[in-house]
From TrEMBL:
Residue ranges occupied by any Nudix hydrolase domain in the UniProt entry: 167-323
Quaternary structure and partners: Monomer. Interacts with GLOD4.
Functional description taken from the UniProt entry: Hydrolyzes ADP-ribose (ADPR) to AMP and ribose 5'-phosphate.
Gene Ontology molecular function, alphabetical: ADP-ribose diphosphatase activity
Organism classification: Eukaryota, Metazoa, Chordata, Craniata, Vertebrata
Entry annotated with the keyword Signal: yes
Protein name: ADP-ribose pyrophosphatase, mitochondrial
Length: 328
């Protein structure tokens, strides 16, 4: 298993450098703007600047031809008067079909915002949010589009992001240090999202009533190890390793708003990102990665500031690298 795993890792690196993913050419793009501005919740948790609301204003709404009303930086804040603001109304056909995971139209339906509404948590990690005409207002400001978009919930849509890391090692086991920073290189498990083709942390939505710790482990198992497809004996082996790792003390690196391209004026993503680190390299590092339903590919990727990742996931990784004194 060990030899197979190491060879497999080596071939992934060759393949990645050949296809050039997910590294950005010379810049990490908008995510670089998501500077860590202040501590929140604990010394291990950080909050991005409220101005970091860039992907949530992407010109064309994901999965559609709908164009957002353009919102310049100085008009993001709801408190800035802007009578000309005329956001496009869009709720995706998948959401309009009323699947179990989605809220219906506001009107006859009036959920308990800013509270635990039955098993649906409508509280924001960032405190109380405002309502306008019975609809919640995005706490990070205007996005140029109102409605639910692709998101199931009006208001916060809660996710959890498991950041599984290990040290990059040569075949003899020594850690690899980066030639520029001289610091050891971390690797994290990344998936290539099927919806947009971007590389991302294998996170997912918190089911109603589910604990964040359960979501973290479930999403990682489903998306990066494809445990849903495994035979019962394989699944048992995978679950044992995963449970050990996820029962270890995780490092919470972020809790709050996600600069997700699916966000709207009335619906937005929030997450809790937790780092689980395989220090010795003999826990999940040895499990064969296999992409699950929502992932086109899955891979161990070197942690580096030049990565181009979905939403503001790069920002979470920066915190992990700095906390673990790794190359960035
Ligand atoms: C992001 O969307 C979160 O950070 C998380 O990674 C992901 C959850 O949405 P799905 O992957 O379930 O679509 O905002």
């Amino acid at each position: 298993m060990k030899a197979v795993s190491r060879n497999w890792v080596a071939s992934v690196h060759v393949a990645l450098s050949l296809i050039g993913l997910p590294y950005a050419a010379g810049t990490s793009g908008v995510c670089r703007k998501n500077a860590i501005s202040r501590s929140l919740f604990s010394s291990k948790s950080v909050y991005m600047s409220p101005a970091a609301h860039v992907k949530a204003r992407c010109p064309v709404y994901p999965g559609s031809d709908t164009r957002r009303f353009p919102v310049p930086d100085d008009k993001v804040d709801w408190d800035t008067d802007w009578p000309q603001y005329s956001p496009v109304n869009y709720t995706a056909p998948t959401v309009l079909k009323k699947p179990v995971w989605a809220d219906p139209e506001i009107g006859p339906f009036s959920p308990q915002f800013n509270s635990l509404d039955g098993s649906v948590d409508r509280r924001s990690h960032e405190g109380s949010y405002r309502l306008q005409n019975g609809k919640p207002l995005n706490p990070h400001g205007r996005t140029g589009l109102e409605g639910q978009g692709l998101l199931g919930r009006w208001g916060p849509n809660h996710a959890a992001d498991p950041i599984v890391t290990r040290w990059k090692r040569v075949s003899t086991g020594q850690r690899v240090h980066h030639t520029n920073s001289q610091l050891p290189v971390l690797q994290f498990v990344s998936i290539k999202r099927l919806d947009c083709g971007e590389w991302a942390i294998p996170g997912g939505m918190v089911d109603p009533g589910e604990r964040i710790s359960q979501t973290l482990q479930r999403e990682f198992s489903e998306e990066a190890l494809n445990s849903l497809q495994a035979s019962p004996s394989e699944r048992e082996k995978i679950q044992k390793r995963i449970t050990e790792l996820f029962n270890s003390a995780g490092l919470q690196v972020y809790k709050g708003y996600v600069d997700d391209p699916r966000n709207t004026d009335n619906a937005w993503m929030e997450t809790v990102a937790v780092n689980f680190h395989d220090e010795s390299g003999n826990s999940v590092s040895e499990l064969p990665l296999q992409a699950g339903d929502d992932a086109g590919q899955v891979s161990w990727i070197d942690v580096d500031s030049s990565l181009a990742l979905y939403a503001n996931h790069l920002h979470f990784l920066e915190t992990v690298a700095k906390e673990r004194n790794a190359h960035w």
